[in-house]
Amino acid sequence: MKILPITDPAFRKYGRRITNVDLTELVEVLSKQPVPEGVVYEPGVAELEATSAMESLATAYFGEMPIQIGYCNGHNELLNAVEYHRNSELNIAATDAILILGMQQDIEEGFTYDTAKMEAFLVPAGTGVEIYATTLHYAPCGVDGAGFQVAVVLPKGTNYPLEKSHADLSAAADNEDALLTAVNKWLIGHAEGGLDASSFIGLKGKNLNVNE
Questions:
Q1: CA 206 to centroid of chain Cα atoms
Q2: What is the CATH number of the domain that holds 35?
Q3: Any bridge partners for residue 68, and if so which?
Q4: Which member of 73, 134, 150, 210 has the greatest number of CB atoms within 10 A?
Q5: CB of 90 within 8 A of CB of 61?
Q6: Could you tell me if 94 and 174 are in contact, meaning their C-beta atoms sit under 8 angstroms apart?
Q7: Residue 125 domain boundaries
Q8: 173 in a domain, yes or no?
Q9: Are residues 41 and 139 in contact, defined by beta-carbon separation less than 8 angstroms?
């Protein structure tokens, strides 16, 4: 799979680089977090939220909305699914990491999506990016089989368990609500992605692998 740098013009429709906030302390604290063999996501981590970047990121990218800083760490080379939120997501890398990205506007009737439309981008260690609300994304991937450490910044409460009932999978072809798997998280999975039975499977084409 072709991996483009985030400086490539193709990245502009998906997001932009964070250049106006000092991420040094956040990256240092993130680098001390565990890197499991699989993939672990923590929505909010107190040590990360105690860094100097917390207030600056909330002001510059979320207009002073309450935010959370967590991480997605581990080892991964596959797409497996795509998700989107109603807002931007910030990703700050303590290691080199690859993001596989697509556009919400390309979701087809019945909430299906062709993975051939996605592109992959390398986020260098120490770098942060804003991923726009209309950008499809999922867990980062490592480079050449190495582990990755990526801080994830979102509005407070995002990705936590739902508190109300929502449409079930039988309505997914007509009702976006059935794609909601957590607070502010709509998900479309791949049949080979290893997701549980409660996830809507709508990705068509290959389960993309950054090493192929």
A1: 19
A2: 2.60.120
A3: 154
A4: 73
A5: yes
A6: no
A7: 3-78+88-158
A8: no
A9: yes
Residue 98, in any domain of the structure: yes
Q: Is the pLDDT of residue 52 over 90?
A: yes
The answer, as to whether pTM is greater than 0.90, is yes
Question: Does position 21 have pLDDT exceeding 90, yes or no?
Answer: yes
Contacts of 153 (CB under 8 A, 6+ apart): 57, 61, 67, 68, 69, 89, 90, 91, 92
DSSP H helices in 64-114: none
11: in domain: yes
Per the CB < 8 A criterion, the answer to whether 51 and 26 are in contact is yes
The encoded tokens of residue 106 equal: 């390309």
The phi, psi pair for 146, rounded to 5°, reads: -75, 160
111-128 pLDDT, tens per residue?
A: 999 999 999 999 999 999
- Number of domains the chain is built from: 1
